[in-house]
Amino acid sequence: MIVWSKGLGKKSLPMELDRARLSVGDDHLLMDGDIESVCWDYTMKLYPDDLGDFMKLLAHPKTARFMARKGGLLFPFVVRLVMFAPMLVLALFKARVLRTAAAEVKR
Amino acid sequence: MRFWSEGLGKRDLVMELSEAALDREGEAIVLTGTIHQPAEWAYKVTMERGDWTTVLTTATSAEACTYLSRSVSVARILGMGLWVVKFIVLMSFYRLGSLLGLVDLDRDAEKPTPHVATVKATPHGAVKPTPPGGSAPTTLKAIAGGAVERRNTA
Lengths: 107, 154
Fold this sequence. Notes:
A: alpha+beta; B: 154 residues; alpha+beta; 3 helices; 31% helix
């Protein structure tokens, strides 16, 4: 991914996203790593809206058409998704139970 | 999305991805828009196929699962799920269409031919259309990228 903004002047920042570290913050998902060409650290904080927006951008016909040019992506993604969905349901259930228990303890 | 890098000092670039314009440029998808914080700056994010693959991997990672269950409402997760379903349907449609030779997947790729606009001007600079059978004026050719070519067509 290459990021450029007016605030960076003529410099653009090429990042190897697949090498970024991923962690969970209080209210965001954090990706961080370093930009090799300039030896700068970078962080990207993704909030709930951003995740939704990324999914929306992925579902744009231009992106889908671009991604469909080569094979080997869809099947592995669907497999990951099939594994991910039950994990997410369980995690949501666990989070809800813990929240309810914490509320009961407060009472 | 908040982006920070050492080169930006203490500033974060706050990008509203929902307002980004999306276009295909060769072997990448380019997102463009305006950052509202710390200033009204234009931005451009170039994402290649590998970057989108990383987005998909990130979205289905254990970290994303923890984050979604802790900080995101069920309604929002379902909303994201609908976009994912749309992506899978579109991908399947385009992939199948391409294999059957029914869909041109390079339709969005930018064509390399520059946009050439021809402006005809009088020697005094006032632009007016060439009169039929009139004297040949100076022709200015504005080529995409800002270069201007001046030609005397007389």
